[in-house]
Known about the structure:
Layout: H1 3-16, E1 21-29, H2 37-55, E2 59-66, H3 71-80, H4 84-93, H5 98-104, E3 111-114, H6 118-133, E4 137-147, E5 152-154, E6 172-181, H7 187-196, E7 200-201, H8 203-214, E8 221-222, E9 224-225, E10 241-242, H9 244-249, H10 251-254, H11 265-271, E11 276-280, H12 284-297, E12 306-309, E13 312-314, H13 329-336, H14 338-348, E14 355-357, H15 359-389, H16 403-411, H17 413-422, H18 426-447, H19 449-452, H20 459-480, H21 485-495, H22 531-552, H23 563-569, H24 580-584, E15 588-599, E16 602-611, E17 616-621, H25 629-632, E18 636-640, E19 646-648, E20 653-655, E21 658-659, E22 662-663, E23 669-670, E24 683-684
Parallel strand pairs: 1-2, 1-11, 2-3, 7-12, 11-12, 13-14
Antiparallel strand pairs: 4-5, 4-6, 6-8, 9-10, 15-16, 15-18, 15-24, 16-17, 18-21, 19-20, 22-23
Helix pairs in contact: 3-4, 7-8, 7-12, 13-14, 14-15, 15-18, 15-20, 15-22, 16-18, 16-20, 17-18, 18-20, 20-21
The protein binds ligand ME8.
Residues 27-30, 38-39, 41-42, 67, 248-249, 279-280, 282-283, 311-312, 319, 563-564, 566-568 line the site of ligand ME8.
Amino acid sequence: MTIMDTMEKKDKKDKKDSKNTFYITTPIYYPSAKLHIGHTYCTVATDAMARYKRLQGYDVMFLTGTDEHGQKIETKAAEAGVTPQQFVDNIVEGKQGVKDLWKLMNISYDRFIRTTDTYHVAAIQKIFKKMYDKGDIYKGTYKGKYCTPCESFWTESQLVNGCCPDCGRPVVDAEEEAYFFRLSKYAAPVRDLLENTDFLLPRSRVNEMIHNFIEPGLEDLCVSRTSFTWGVPVDFDPKHVVYVWIDALFNYTTALGFLNDAYPDADYQKFWPADVHFVGKEIVRFHSIIWPAMLMSMDMPLPKRVFGHGWLLLDGGKMSKSKGNVVDPYLLAERYSADALRYFLLRDFPFGTDGNFSNELLINRINMDLANDLGNLLSRTTAMADKYFGGTLPAAQATGPEDEELLALAGGLRGRYEAAMEKYAFQTALAEVFGVIARANKYIDETAPWVLAKSPDTLPRLSRVLYNLAETLRLCGVLLKPFMPESCDKIFAQLGVDPTLQTWASVATFGALPATATLHKGENIFPRIDAAKELAALDALQEAQKQAAADSAPADAPAAPAPGVATAELIGEHEPKIAYDDFAKIELRVAEVRACENLKESKKLLHLTVFDGERERCILSGIAKWYKPEDLVGKRLPIVANLAPRPMMKGKYTSEGMIVAADTADGGCAIAFYGADVPVGTRIH
Ligand code: ME8
């Protein structure tokens, strides 16, 4: 019996003691705009974890998808002049859409759920009814503070400085008939779950949840809306649609066939409860408080774990679609390969905390780790095997004193890697692998194969040295494959490693590669990047993308973010404060509308001629949906008077300012008008 057979047997025995399935999920993303690097980060992490578990022999279910209902999408579709379904279809299935992005990034999901899938819609109606029949959902009137961009109601006690605790924006008073979920009923068991188990990780997030939400007291949760229609209708009261979180959270079970026939119920029996939900820190509250409470109400088992990962920030601040400074994963993956981007994302940023994205970090990481350390080790090893032995290592091999340290480090790698992966510490797992790669490069310098090649007496030693290098590369390749699947296949091809030597069992100890391995020198898998040149090129490309985004947005469209980017974009804690002098630079004035008309080229824009006290100017404003020209003529309203003029509609108009408006509770916008007692041209401070 070989070492490998023994290890395989042991692995099988270990697994028999527990369930051999692993169910992992990403959040289902809002298809309100193209996904960005933040979404890619979470999905790549989930993919690496899923591939790692498959490598270990688990029967894995990896679910991702899109959360397609809600007012935001209804509004965006209307703005784009299409139906909500057409709008989401385009973002999910269209060119460079969500599915294209996951294909490019080599995401090995097993299922993709869209909350507009009919099986999901029908199941959500049944779930809603079940909770209603149980008395856990009841009808009431909602009076509360509402944050329009986040589509969230808040209680007074949850507000931070009177603003939304998630995004820091002002909230408005709102009232409507609504159904409620008795969240308060489950406060004690949820608290127990958070405090006394490892349900939620990292642990610091538990403290946040207890302190911010449990201790102030859990209030019942509004779970239906009447102010928009793009949602799952409550079938026994159709003027209501199910409000986002019931619809969104139960995706994790409907995609397994729970209460529907699209998938066999056996999948639900087999895979539920989930082993882990990966979610960004801003939706930890929904996954660690509301989700378990709803499952308790449904008498369903709870997921084993929720992991709240950190955010990717851009240059220390927020990444924002409306600013046009989100990082486009398409651009980077196409330029440097999906594998390089995947590796960078999981190597540079600790998964549990925030990290600062920059092009410089990306390029340095590719050059240092992939081109220098891994790429060089592979090309030196295969080139020497080729040069000295025509590729196939002779069986006569001699060990030497330099071997001990490398063999010990590489031989123990799987255990250290596994310990890190089980804690979702991708950065540590990768650092372990690259520690071994660095040690192997040092081993080449210590053993000096080019000297050994000079005498027939030292050829057995040379053969052993190259064997040790090839075996180290094989071990590292197997463990890197969840992170860089395509590149590792290329590494295996150069090392002549067949699939039986790519298994988890085969990397338990050093030495499974046959002594007379045949290596082939192949292409350079990770070419070195000219950093200065690439940084300049990336800056130019990203600037062009930013400009294109700005050109396609109306001059003074309200800066309300798409929910798909709200997480990264509304990072209150990272928002720099401005000095009064900065505020004073913005010249706000009272202007009078002298003329106003609809534009035939755009449904969204109104063309206004306003008098600012000194002169007339043209402003194009994206408010046509909420104001008719005749509502505005003669009115006095606030404008930003010192914005740089902007050509719009392909240069046909130049907009010379911006109208200041507030978001309303129903997703519209409201302008504050001044009376005749405020002279035209007055500065607003
Ligand atoms: O919240 N850094 O969808 P969403 C890291 N539909 N991760 C980021 C990120 C950033 N800058 N920006 C986004 C929703 N993410 C709901 C989820 S689940 C039942 C419903 C990732 O499109 C992160 O994982 O706003 C975050 O939680 C998720 O995208 C939010 O995506």
